[in-house]
Amino acid sequence: MGMALDEPKEQDREFKLQDWTFIMEPEVESMVAQGGGVSIDFVDDGFRKGYTVQIGNAGECGEGGCGSCDCS
Prior knowledge:
By secondary structure, the chain is of the alpha+beta class. It contains 1 helix and 4 strands, in the order E-E-H-E-E. The chain has a domain at 14-55.
């Protein structure tokens, strides 16, 4: 599974959030639903720069093993 810029296929679902449109294959949509959601973030920390996508417990600090939460 990967992330790519692509044109929607007939079986794909489109999700719109503000100015963004996300296209998911049915298999990916099922994994996201079972995994607890998805979070997308932009990272710029010197060594890494770009978008990251995490499936699982999106938005729940301390869950999902993202390691990027600032839980105080």
